[in-house]
Design brief:
By secondary structure, the protein is mainly β. Strands 1-2-3-5-4 form a five-stranded mixed β-barrel. The radius of gyration is 14 Å and the shape is globular. The chain starts with a strand and ends with a helix. The mean pLDDT is about 90.
Length: about 100
């Protein structure tokens, strides 16, 4: 597991899900870019209330920064090209909304 900090934009809206045990969690996707301007899809899951609420407060295209446990992955697109992606278990979600809340 890698401790990661990823900045990007929310892809679509976050959604609330319920596991088999009845516990709620939040899932979302973000788009991040590296210095070479390559895009990475970040699959985000939040089990804790604070990062989950922060994700739900954002809308498609909003800028955000995610902190948490990061797992690199690879997927195959329709053209047969291997593409990188990241799975992130969010422990902290930061956005412009946080700056607006500061006294």
């Amino acid at each position: 597991m890698i401790d990661g900090l990823v900045a990007g934009r929310l892809m679509g809206d976050a959604s609330r899900r319920i596991d088999k045990a009845g516990r709620t969690y939040i899932v979302a996707r973000a788009l991040a870019r590296n210095r070479a301007d390559e895009e990475f899809i970040v699959n985000v899951i939040a089990f804790d209330d604070a990062p989950g609420a922060a994700l739900l407060a954002l809308a498609d295209g909003d800028a955000l920064t995610l902190a948490g446990a990061l797992t690199p992955k690879v997927w195959l697109d329709k053209q047969g090209v291997h593409r990188p992606s990241l799975d992130l278990i969010a422990t902290r979600v930061m956005s412009a909304l946080d700056a607006a809340r500061q006294p």
